[in-house]
Amino acid sequence: MVDALRPPPKKHPTRRSPVATPPPAPRSRTGIFFTAYAARGEFRLQKCEACGAVAYPPRDICAKCWSSDLVWTPIAPEGALVAETMLHTSTTPYFRDRLPWRIGAIKLAGDGPVVVAHVHADASDGGDVRVFARTDKSGQGVLYALPEKDTENMADDHALREITCDPKHRRILVTDARTPLGAAMAKAALEAGAAKVFLGVAQKWKPFDGQEALLSLPNTEIAPLDMADADSVTELAASIGSKVDILINTAQFVRPGSAMNRRDLVTARDEMEVNYFGPLRLLQALGPIMRARGADGANSAAAWVNCLSVFALSNRPAFGLTSASQAAALSLSQSARAEFAGSGVKVVNAFHGPLDDEWAQPLPPPKVAPEKLASDVVGALRKGLEDVCSGDIAKDIYERWRENPAVLERELALTNLAD
Amino acid sequence: MGASRKRQSYDGVVLAAPVTVPYRRYSKDSAHWWIGRALKMLGDAARLGAADIDGFVVSSFSLAPDTAIGLTQHFGLSPRWLDHIPMGGAAGVVALRRAARAVQAGDADVVACIGGDTNHVNSFRDMLGSFSRFSQDAVYPYGSAGPNGSFALLTRNYMKTYGATREDFGRICVAQRENALSFPYALMKKPLTLDQYMSARAIAEPIHLFDCVMPCAGAEGFLVMRESTARAQGLRFVNVLTAIERHNAFPDDMIQYRGGWTLDIDEFWSMAGVAPGDIDLLQTYDDYPVISLMQIEDLGFCAKGEAKHIVRTHKLTVDGTFPHNTSGGQLSVGQAGAAGGFLGLVDAIRQLTGAALGAQVKNANLAAVSGFGMINYDRGLCTGAAILASGGSDG
Amino acid sequence: MSLLKDLGEAVTSGSVKIVDLSHTLDPDFPVLVLPPEFGQCQPFRIEEVSRYDERGPAWYWRNFSCNEHTGTHFDAPVHWVTGKDLPNSSVDTIDPSGFVRSACVMDFSKEAAGDADFVLTAEHIKSWETQHGEIAAGSWALFRTDWSKRTHAEYLNLKEDGAHSPGPDAGAIRYLIETRNVVGFGVETIGTDAGQGGHFDPPYPAHTLLHGAGRYGLQCLRNLDQLPPVGAVVIATPLKIKAGSGSPLRVVAMVEE
Fold this sequence. Notes:
The structure holds three protein chains of three kinds. By secondary structure, chain B is α/β, with parallel strands linked by helices. Chain B has helices spanning 31-46, 68-75, 91-105, 123-129, 133-138, 147-162, 166-180, 194-198, 227-232, 261-272, 289-298, 307-313, 329-333, 340-352; strands at residues 13-24, 55-59, 81-84, 110-117, 202-204, 207-208, 217-226, 237-247, 281-283, 366-375, 380-390.
């Protein structure tokens, strides 16, 4: 059984912080498909449409029938650990810093192939395991085998924590705690064992609902943060930058309207200011600090979370300009993900439909309760996901976008006519 | 499809001029330099020049961006038959087979077969990271242990399945070290005891330090020609009685416990007209001792899973009852990249021609040589084997 | 013109003191808050362009942006709908003679300290005049509440039912315009109207009446406690913004020692 992870000691005053080094990142182009599914927590392997054989490692031709019609298909997690080894040497600094390291050969159930995977300390040689796909600290897909049944302190396994962003013992910055979403996020992070939650509050002179209740939570601290103010962001980075292990950007500016039913750019600028320039300022001020702390022990910097409208993927005309700013934010997140790659900091995009807040008040259900989004974000961190959808609308739009973005665009345009 | 045509003999084709460019742990020189040095030694040994060597086959991991064709211009060769064999541990036997058929068919008169690699300080890690697409996608990201990780898994499985122990592997390593002590080019020069073997540090359990080869720089080579040519050049030579190769055998085995030799083993022996008991020395590919045990079984020296008895009941040294890896093998000489696939074969030619550089196997007339290579994903894909017999010599 | 020469010497010698009536333009300084479906007043924003670095090795400069009504600011008549048709009513066209005027300071800081919703009436002004004399025509009427000494949330003093801060009723403004013919009305709070001025009749009487009559407003003033009740001269020169409804500005007052 894995020992319970203890709260990390205070940082050593003179010792150099470990430099983040990436596990091997190169993959074949087909292998990147595996990564793309793994990033959202899907374990998919190629299945031959012609003969049904499951192929692994990723390939372009079926080894059984030479068909090239290989379809990425969800795979059952059950498998058996055929052989395992504890590695005591490695050629890459990433693994050398983390030895010993356990890997194994796993026969997936049924007609599944044999896969090499990282293996949890509690999985027994010859025993049954559960295999899942996730991205590692290079942002590339890997397989990981858990013991057949959950064990005590399972999440604390050192190799598992490498591919998750578990809030336990970590310090979280909620960038905008003024909103119900911010409050819900703070609570969810604390419930997940966060050591501290910094509550980002802009314009402290403007009171907000639930202020007292929020401040009465344990292990919280107000962090003055106006994402629209470069100085404020810089000051935040200077004061708590080196203590932010997970950043959750809850700030959002949502307004109805599209280009032709607005008369000016004032609101559009506000949308860009909060949804795009704000995260950009944070990235410039905090990103480099977090990137340098990606291997800094049990409370290393681990994740940069963006709460994004799912209409970042495809414009929703009724909120056309907010959608445009969300698209900018999504594009920024992709840029950030590439910049964080290999640092050990995952960029997590939590896509959601309309939140159940004042801006979605006239909209029909379903709407996403802030608590639901918060719990989905914390769940994604615990699982180490990079893309997660919260709520039915987000799931629906995301699936339709994956299926065919051009069709989705036309469908959303039609909903505008109906509105 | 009709039945396979019977394999044709290698009558009239011989191997001669075994050469080894002395190994070094690290080299600032290029693979071109190492292969070129081997070519020079082959030419000197056979008193042949570029005009005479009209066939050329090369095996190397560290030539990039060049291949065999680039080497022809580099070396001033104008061969009428050329091959490049990226098959690592099986490259020696495969080169032999290709070259022998070329000579037999008249496509070439004299083929220089060379395996060689350099070893810069970083080149082993660089090679591992880009060894194969499957490895890049599905092995290297898991601990980056290189072959140690993959062989640890199949060693673990072999031990569980057949009851082989670490001591059994140790017997292989200890005997080879003894052989290496008299082999001038071996990089390992200190004796090794079974106690030392057993108490070595773990590398990738159950693999420990002395189960692993040491990457180094080096080159090995030999010539393939008609027997008449060898006689004309006054070269001692060996005949090829049989040779097989097989790739990606048993793809559905969950984990590798056998190799492709078993698919062709009956024809292998019947074509040679000899039996395992007739063999005077065996050269297995020993990147890890478990693979030597697997070859002893799959080549028919015992039943599957029984190689542990062979290593327990025989003395495996040059002067023993089961002479094995006479130069000390890669485990004690070093693994010079693709030269590792030639090491046993080249030393077998020396042993059979009475030209051992170190200890000589007494009355060595028949040698079995085996190759194994290319952990593309989770298992070695290439296997090959040959039986060589002492030939005449005008020496 | 020995008057200005004397003034210049007095300022240099310190016998005429310059009092700064402005707040620092700070991104964290409160701005007017409206329900979010309305357009909002943008706080002061700064983006660094270079600071002796690769973006500009020897120089430091920044872009800033804000609303015309951010920080200590000037309201031109065109700011309010009642003044929209007046001639020369935007900051770039109004008569600059209005930028330099004498000022009276009506101190109701005690009243405001006791009542955040203190409403200034004509009676209050008349009572002040009995002590300090009539407000001079063409001067600024400055309303001292010491509100500028509040910071952050206390400054805006937002409650569930809106902001609570002192301001004038319609009668006070009418008196200042019609009876005293002031050039404008200046306050320490975020607007010339009371926090609850939207509920007055007419709503926002200061904005409605002042600007409808072509008068000016000055908001977010400070250091009014350093001015005498009468006798100071205020210099308040808004930026010359094309068609500007107002402008942040540096307001200073000259005070005789």
